[in-house]
Amino acid sequence: QVQLVESGGGLVQAGGSLRLSCAASGGTFRTYVTGWFRQVPGKEREFVGYINRSGGITYYADSVKGRFTISRDNAKNTVYLQVNSLKPEDTAVYYCAAGDRISVYHKEYAYWGQGTQVTVSS
Q1: What one-character DSSP code corresponds to residue 32?
Q2: Backbone angles phi, psi at 99, to 5 degrees
């Protein structure tokens, strides 16, 4: 069973950037696909993007396409979410998740981190 820990969130001004990390332990991380999701209070968890096992395939929600980039370093058991050109509407708790197949649906992912808060001020 894999454990995931996100880090790198914080408070940033609109237009700024952050790099979120998702560190895995306790399992063979390279055998899992990884997704990023975000959630604000009172709303459903929203798909951000995913990356396949090798890192060769990524896919993003339209709302973040061109601004966010997912990458992974299997040697370090870590997946990254580079977030650029941040907007106030990007404010949310960001979660990484691991699963057996790529999907935009959060229920397809079996393992989740605790989340990291990203707050974008206008």
Answers
A1: S
A2: -155, -175
Each of the 122 residues of the chain gets a pLDDT tens digit; together they read 899 999 999 999 999 999 999 999 987 888 999 999 999 999 999 999 999 999 999 999 999 999 999 999 999 999 999 999 999 999 999 999 999 999 999 999 999 999 999 999 99
- Rounded to whole angstroms, how far apart are CA atoms 56 and 1? 24
Distances (CA, A) of 36 to 6, 96, 122: 10, 4, 24
CB < 8 Å & 24+ apart, contacts of 72-78: 72/34, 74/29, 74/30, 76/23, 77/23, 77/24, 77/25, 77/29, 77/30, 78/21, 78/22, 78/23, 78/24
Neighbour-count burial for 31-53, b at 16+ CB within 10 Å, e otherwise: ebbbbbbbeeeeeebbbbbbbeb
What residues are paired with 9 via a beta bridge? none
> In this structure, how many other beta carbons lie within 10 angstroms of the beta carbon of residue 58?
15
